[in-house]
Amino acid sequence: MSSSTHLRSRRRGDYPFHLTYRTRWSDNDMYAHLNNSVYGHLFDSIINAYLITRCGLHPPTSPRIFLAVSTTAAFFAPVAFPAVVDLGLRVTKLGTSSVTYEVGVFQEGADEVRCVGGFVHVCVERGTRRTAEGGMGDGVREGLRPLLVVAKGGERAKL
């Protein structure tokens, strides 16, 4: 199965955490669908909502922060205002100081994925922007563990 076909087969149930987003008129571009840059905002929103509500991250004051070092997106069908979308989040790789997230974008009421994308985050010390000693810390790692998806055969799932 090709990578695109593999990603296109994602369904809501493949993602353990969900967040709803109501699109705005200004999200549309001149082609009458969500501008590609909006997807980055969607990915950032669900990832940080999870880190804040489930992992205790407080971006303005936390001594450790997460920086995006890589982003990706594969588009399968358009979304346009006034759609409501359901974002699904999972983790495909959880290291000591880095984490790979996968986000699925679904139109409300539909099980077929519209877009699959995500980030690789690296945990760094706020002041130095260097990898944090001890990585992301056990509390954050344990908070992310419920999102970790293991592929069939025991291999880590791939984005």
Q: Please count the helical segments.
A: 3
Helix content estimate: 10-25%
Q: Any low-confidence stretches, pLDDT <50, length ≥5? A: none
Could you tell me the mean pLDDT? 93
The radius of gyration is 16 Å
Tell how many strands the DSSP assignment holds.
5
The largest sheet, given as strand count, sense and whether it forms a barrel, is: 5 strands, antiparallel
Order of helices and strands: HEHEEEEH
Q: How much of the residues is beta strand, in percent?
A: 25-35%
Could you say which structural class the secondary elements and strand pairing correspond to?
alpha+beta
How is the largest sheet built, in terms of strand order? 1-3-4-5-2
**Roughly how many Å apart are the termini?**
13 Å
Q: Looking at the structure, what is the overall shape?
A: globular
